[in-house]
């Protein structure tokens, strides 16, 4: 019995020792919270790669206001509770700002903690509407909101002239939000637009033939899938195998080159999706430099637009520290809300409104061509 | 009607995969009374080994597709079987005489270990099998569609299951496995080397799981390190549904599970599909407490 | 009859733990909070798995029912969150009773898959926004902080005392239960169901009792979880969650409350300590699980066998 008391005491003293955190005086600590493990690990790891690159770059140029940038990475595992712990951990390490994370529910679990601790948070992949409706003073995001995306989706559907619409989501916070938002808008649409199908698939499965057969019997002119790219790729592939050629439109979570790899070029051709502009379609020099540097360091260009959006978040906060010559959260937040205008980000010009949402039209429509390339639609 | 038949076909081909994975669960359970939660991850490893052979080794460049498939199947089965035997030695054998649930936790630990090992070796990104290994043609009969790959996969599953059935029922080794499944000590008394039988089971079960992984890779093209968890859970359900420890039961359970799933998506709700599956499972178990083909456990007197 | 009161090191442990928070930063206190929550869940599951020998891999369902009951009553009807505590327990217990009643006769692994099934059905129902009250995959947000005597509990340090006091209450209650007639009946069922039946124990009804008590307690823990997170979503109640609770019980030592607490420390604490290993941390964690099981197959602190002082029983005065 006594042995385990010793065990617990050893554990507790372990806690004490891990408290001794090196405290460099001349550095700025920026946190990155992202899914380094778990189902979205590929997104998180790429976010880290982009930020590592940018931090190296800033430090090579002498840092920000003469201070080196120190990136503190915490894993949220794509899980709200782990995120709450990761957020606590970042706060205790006295970071000034945090970039991340991916997934709206995960972000939501961390928002309150950062806000109470007055840490600026710039989310990169959290598009749920309500995150900014709380009007938290230190919360920003570089990705757009679902309602904007739904608007663009409905415009596209109108432009392409589809009448019988099927909407398929995957029951995740993001995909369901987008699906419901689009459904609401479409129901208000004049001109006999009908929603003939509305249901959710289970993400992570691989056989969607049962769902496709059911979809087909509802005979839609077009299917709007609001989920993520792995499922979208499989749906396209299996749809092709069924010899059913109905057009598919995807939300911005389908924007990933792996989609074409999963579906195969023949099956992916003609697939439309909505997304923030891809780095390759940005005329800005920043994006080109990033792509080149990234490919040079890691062997391939970044796959995920969210990793690039994390990079935007990082550059915005560095810009704010540089301009205000301060690391005071109130000053930084004030600057980001009011003064930052037309910042040349990788994904276009960046400014924030009073809620912390990114201002401006971000979404574009893309179509997959025969070579499997993503082509920007006019 | 056409819809119904198409859904039946969809369910059948999905059920074939479930059945193949369920066999591994049921065999291990039969002899050790252990739910091998790492089985799903051995399945994942099978899919990744196949991927390595296709992409990094480029096996299809040197030999023709049919031979390549056989070589791949054999390599994957051999590799995963080796891992399976190693797993049993390292994580299960020391716990054979411990409370049963301790081995279950060890299995869960091994599952986490394998899953993360795959992630660290291959990265967290999705991997995709090269396309066009098979002809992409689709059989269409009376308006029903069935891609040839699926026909092929279904046939392989059927052949493997039949072979396994005869192996268990008609050979001496099979008889030894059945004896150990009934009673370790009695089997030992009649001169059966129990350790050897367990090793054989851990060769056959994981090999079938690895083969199923390869099939899924060929069939759906996309693989990821977390895929084993969901398939594992489904296959475990299938094994229980048919009566765990019972080989024809695992096959039947897999097929029935696949059909329930596709019918639930077709006529009820896609989003509620898995819930419907479990409701049906619970109903079946309330009527037949040991699964469809499960034998009634003899009660101690 | 005098029973020697044995000194239990558990209380020393609690005193040490209660002295810790002022010395720790909020992050580590929050880790301790999670450890505390899982210890309570573990103890409630221990009654089912460890004491009664029922293979339950769906405990998260009861936890979820408690959490959602609290969240809905608090956000829709603005009832103070702690006042819903008994009600959340009651709902979870009632749910356990209704669901488990028809299937309680299933044996071993068949019961296991059914509990997994119940857990999954509950999670899918929550995701699909059943009755329009669970908020679907978004879950429910804006759950109030608890208020005790006009004092709002907000920071991890304040939550620490709420959770750990609840843990102490849990330990006391379950210790008493363990040594009661009911507790002995549970153990009897675990060790030999047929013998138990022979002794006149109503096996089905005792098994059901174990489930209902365990579920009630998990439901109450759900209440505290909801108010601590202020947002709950179905993801927090997945199959994986049940697996974690199960692992805590078995790793710590099935049937032992001390063991369950240590199990919670290891399963919740270790991944946090391994944080520096970054993406390899879960690999090490999985390996650690296997090794710990091999080194201590009966769990870290297996329960002590019940011992009786035969002499004192023999010498007892039976005259009326």
Describe the 3D structure.
With 378 residues, chain A is α/β, with parallel strands linked by helices. Chain A has helices at 2-19, 41-60, 80-92, 104-116, 130-133, 146-160, 173-188, 209-217, 229-241, 258-263, 265-268, 285-298, 305-324, 329-339; strands spanning 27-34, 68-75, 97-99, 120-123, 139-141, 164-169, 194-200, 222-225, 248-250, 272-275, 343-345, 348-350, 364-368, 374-376. A seven-stranded mixed beta sheet of chain A has the order 7-6-8-9-10-13-14, covered by helices on one side. In chain A, strands 2-1-3-4-5 form a five-stranded parallel beta sheet, sandwiched between helices. Chain A has a two-stranded antiparallel ribbon with strand order 11-12. In chain A, helix 9 links the parallel strand 8 (222-225) and strand 9 (248-250). Chain A is globular and about 65 Å long. The termini of chain A are far apart. Chain B has one domain (11-226). In chain B, strands 1-4 form a two-stranded antiparallel sheet. A two-stranded antiparallel sheet of chain B has the order 2-3. In chain B, a hairpin with a 2-residue loop joins strand 2 (138-141) and strand 3. In chain B, helix 6 runs antiparallel to helix 9. Chain B is globular and about 60 Å long. The model of chain B has no long low-confidence stretch (mean pLDDT 85). Chain C is an all-alpha fold. Chain C has a domain at 25-237. Chain C has helices at residues 9-19, 26-51, 59-77, 85-100, 108-127, 156-178, 181-191, 193-198, 203-229, 239-252, 257-273, 281-295, 310-314, and strands at 140-141, 147-148, 151-152, 231-232. In chain C, strands 1-4 form a two-stranded antiparallel sheet. A two-stranded antiparallel sheet of chain C has the order 2-3. In chain C, a hairpin with a 2-residue loop joins strand 2 and strand 3. In chain C, helix 2 (26-51) packs antiparallel against helix 9 (203-229) and helix 3 (59-77) packs across helix 9. Classes of the chains: A alpha/beta (378), B mainly alpha (301), C mainly alpha (320). Chains in contact: A-B, A-C, B-C. Chains B and C meet through helix 5, helix 10 and helix 12 of B and helix 5, helix 10 and helix 12 of C.
């Amino acid at each position: 019995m006594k042995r385990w008391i010793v065990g617990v005491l050893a554990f507790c003293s372990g806690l004490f020792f891990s408290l001794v955190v090196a405290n460099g005086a001349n550095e700025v600590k920026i946190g990155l919270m992202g899914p380094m493990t778990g189902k979205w690990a590929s997104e998180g790891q790429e976010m880290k790669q982009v930020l590592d690159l940018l931090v190296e770059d800033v430090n090579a140029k002498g840092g920000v206001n003469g201070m080196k940038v120190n990136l503190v990475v915490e894993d949220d595992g794509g899980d709200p509770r782990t995120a709450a712990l990761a957020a606590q951990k970042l706060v205790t390490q006295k970071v000034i700002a945090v970039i991340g994370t991916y997934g709206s529910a995960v972000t939501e679990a961390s928002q309150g903690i950062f806000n109470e601790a007055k840490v600026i948070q710039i989310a990169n992949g959290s598009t749920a509407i309500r995150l900014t409706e709380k009007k938290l003073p230190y919360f920003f995001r570089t990705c757009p909101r679902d309602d904007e995306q739904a608007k663009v989706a409905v415009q596209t559907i109108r432009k392409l002239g589809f009448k019988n619409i099927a909407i398929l989501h995957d029951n995740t916070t993001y995909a369901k939000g987008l699906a419901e938002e689009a459904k609401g808008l479409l129901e208000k649409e004049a001109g006999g637009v009908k929603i003939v199908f509305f249901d959710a698939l289970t993400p992570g499965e691989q056989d969607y033939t049962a769902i496709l057969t059911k979809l087909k019997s509802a005979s839609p002119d077009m299917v709007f899938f609001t989920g993520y790219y792995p499922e979208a790729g499989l749906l396209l592939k299996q749809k092709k195998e069924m010899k059913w050629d109905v057009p598919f439109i995807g939300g911005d979570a389908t924007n990933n080159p792996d989609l074409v790899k999963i579906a195969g070029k023949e099956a992916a051709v003609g697939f439309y999706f909505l997304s923030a502009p891809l780095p390759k379609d940005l005329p800005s020099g920043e994006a080109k430099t990033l792509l080149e540097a990234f490919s040079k360091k890691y062997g391939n260009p970044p796959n995920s637009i969210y990793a690039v959006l994390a990079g935007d978040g990082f550059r915005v906060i560095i810009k704010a520290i540089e301009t205000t010559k301060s690391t005071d959260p109130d000053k930084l937040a004030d600057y980001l809300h009011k003064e930052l205008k037309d910042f040349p980000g990788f994904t276009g010009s960046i400014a924030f409104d009073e809620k912390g949402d990114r201002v401006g039209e971000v979404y574009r429509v893309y179509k997959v061509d025969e070579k499997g390339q993503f082509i920007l639609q006019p | 009607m056409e819809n119904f038949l198409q859904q039946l076909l969809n369910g059948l081909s999905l059920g074939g995969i479930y059945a193949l994975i369920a066999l591994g669960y049921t065999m291990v359970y039969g002899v050790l009374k252990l739910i091998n939660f790492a089985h799903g991850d051995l399945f994942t490893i099978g899919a990744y080994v196949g991927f390595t052979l296709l992409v990094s080794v480029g096996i299809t460049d040197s030999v023709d597709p049919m031979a390549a498939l056989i070589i791949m199947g054999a390599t994957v089965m051999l590799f995963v079987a080796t891992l399976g035997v190693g797993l049993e030695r390292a994580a299960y054998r020391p716990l054979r005489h411990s409370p049963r649930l301790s081995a279950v936790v060890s299995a869960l630990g091994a599952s986490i270990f394998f899953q993360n090992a795959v992630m660290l070796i291959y990265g967290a990104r999705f991997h995709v099998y090269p396309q066009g290994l098979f002809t992409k043609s689709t059989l269409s009969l009376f308006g029903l569609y069935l891609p040839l790959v699926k026909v092929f996969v279904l046939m392989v599953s059927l052949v493997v299951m039949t072979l396994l059935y005869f192996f268990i029922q008609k050979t001496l080794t099979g008889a030894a496995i059945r004896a150990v499944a009934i009673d370790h000590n009695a089997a030992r008394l009649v001169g059966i080397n129990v350790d050897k039988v367990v090793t054989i089971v851990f060769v056959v079960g994981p090999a079938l799981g690895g083969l199923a992984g390869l099939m899924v890779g060929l069939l759906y093209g996309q693989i990821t390190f977390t895929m084993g968890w969901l398939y594992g859970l489904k296959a475990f359900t299938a094994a229980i549904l048919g009566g765990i420890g019972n080989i024809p039961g695992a096959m039947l359970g897999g097929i029935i599970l696949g059909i329930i799933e596709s019918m639930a998506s077709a006529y009820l709700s896609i989003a509620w599909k898995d819930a419907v599956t479990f409701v049906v499972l619970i109903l079946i178990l309330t009527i037949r407490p040991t699964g469809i083909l499960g034998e009634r456990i003899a009660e101690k007197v | 009859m005098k029973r020697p009161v044995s000194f239990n090191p558990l209380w020393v442990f609690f005193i040490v733990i209660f002295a810790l928070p002022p010395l720790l930063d909020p992050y580590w206190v929050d880790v301790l909070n999670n450890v505390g929550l899982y210890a309570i869940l573990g103890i409630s599951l221990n009654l089912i798995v460890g004491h009664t020998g029922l293979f339950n891999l769906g405990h998260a369902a009861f936890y979820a029912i408690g959490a959602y009951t609290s969240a809905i009553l608090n956000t829709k009807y603005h009832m103070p969150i702690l006042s819903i505590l008994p009600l959340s327990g009651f709902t979870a217990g009632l749910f356990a009773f209704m669901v488990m009643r028809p299937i309680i006769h299933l044996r071993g692994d068949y019961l296991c898959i059914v509990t997994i099934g119940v857990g999954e059905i509950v999670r899918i129902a929550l995701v699909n926004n059943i009755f329009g009250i669970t908020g679907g995959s978004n879950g429910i947000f804006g759950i109030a902080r608890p208020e005790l005597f006009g004092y709002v509990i907000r920071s991890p340090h304040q939550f620490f005392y709420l959770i750990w006091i609840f843990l102490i209450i849990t330990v006391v209650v379950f210790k008493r239960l363990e040594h009661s007639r009911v507790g002995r009946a549970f153990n009897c069922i675990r060790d030999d169901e047929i013998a138990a039946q022979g002794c006149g124990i109503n096996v089905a009804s005792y098994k059901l009792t174990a489930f209902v008590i365990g579920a009630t307690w998990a439901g109450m823990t759900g209440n505290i979880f909801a108010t601590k997170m202020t947002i709950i979503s179905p993801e927090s109640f997945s199959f994986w969650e049940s697996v974690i609770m199960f692992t805590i019980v078995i790793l710590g030592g099935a049937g032992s409350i001390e063991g369950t607490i240590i199990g919670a420390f290891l399963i919740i604490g270790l991944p946090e300590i391994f944080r520096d290993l970054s993406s390899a941390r879960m690999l090490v964690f999985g390996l650690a699980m296997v090794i710990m099981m091999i080194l201590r197959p009966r769990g870290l602190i297996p329960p002590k066998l019940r011992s009786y002082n035969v002499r004192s029983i023999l010498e007892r005065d039976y005259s009326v």
